[in-house]
Amino acid sequence: MNSLLTMNELQVREINEILKDAHSFAEGRQWAPGKKLFVANLFFEPSTRTKSSFEVAERRLGLDVIHFDAETSSVQKGETLYDTAKTLQSIGVGALVIRHEQDRYFDELKGKLNIPVINAGDGCGNHPTQSLLDLLTIQQEFGSLRRLKIAIIGDIRHSRVARSNADALSRLGAEVVFSGPKEWMDFSLESGSYENIDSAIKTADVVMLLRIQHERHSGDSSAPDGDYLSSFGMTKERERSMKPKAIIMHPAPVNRGMEIDSELVECDRSRIFKQMENGVFVRMAVLKRAFEKAEGGNIYEAHNQK
Ligand code: CP
């Protein structure tokens, strides 16, 4: 099938193929399907980056984007996600991009649709296109992921970004370490070990800060006591302790002054806005892959132009 639901389902070879396509889109490559294709973006949770960059990617590929607003759709009358997806398939939509607050919402769609679903984030579960754009950003910086040390810091437990990245980074040869408040660690993650924040930041090639996921916190996972920035954030002092060529990443939106000192968001080491730029190229590559595989890869005209 041609969907992209989790990073775990991609073999290393497939990750590298997507990244190669994304690199070429970043360099100006053009590609368009040879027939009219519709795509719908179903966002049941707020989004700025993912939703907008999917839409830019879709338009750059010449796809027709169907407007869908969960607040004014028949979801408000109780229509299920499956019935919504099946309806859009029935009226001719060729692929669905879905963000949903429920972990693994896609399990109820598996095997029931004959169009690809691209996961734009499920609850605390997965965010595969964020992971791919993070990998692209690190590759652009260092050439390869192999033997790099990546420190993922913050609200690990509620982060679909941490979950998607830890597995993929490890399989691509990087060393992953986690750091942050003990209330928010996730000891069920198989990839990566735990390290004190100051030593992790001093020794990492990439410091990946995570947003505090306030909307996913319940009584058992409330914020740790004290000043989060000084205990677990990227302060100016910690930034000065980093290796000379090390970079700072964050999936955003950023809670300025909490995960990172506001003045560091756009500092020389920060790749936060580069990550957003790369989101468009990765999503173009993922959509291309979805449509090529959906149609057996033989009815589209690929235009390779620089
Ligand atoms: N990084 C990310 O997923 O941002 P949005 O929630 O704005 O899409």
TrEMBL record:
Catalytic activity: carbamoyl phosphate + L-aspartate = N-carbamoyl-L-aspartate + phosphate + H(+)
EC number from the UniProt entry: 2.1.3.2
Molecular function, one GO term: aspartate carbamoyltransferase activity
Residues that bind L-aspartate: 77, 160, 211
Lineage top rank: taxon: Bacteria
Key word ATP-binding present: no
Pathway(s) served: Pyrimidine metabolism; UMP biosynthesis via de novo pathway; (S)-dihydroorotate from bicarbonate: step 2/3
UniProt entry tagged with the keyword Transferase: yes
Keywords: Pyrimidine biosynthesis, Transferase
Homology family: Belongs to the aspartate/ornithine carbamoyltransferase superfamily. ATCase family.
HAMAP family: Asp_carb_tr
Protein name: Aspartate carbamoyltransferase
Gene this protein is translated from: pyrB
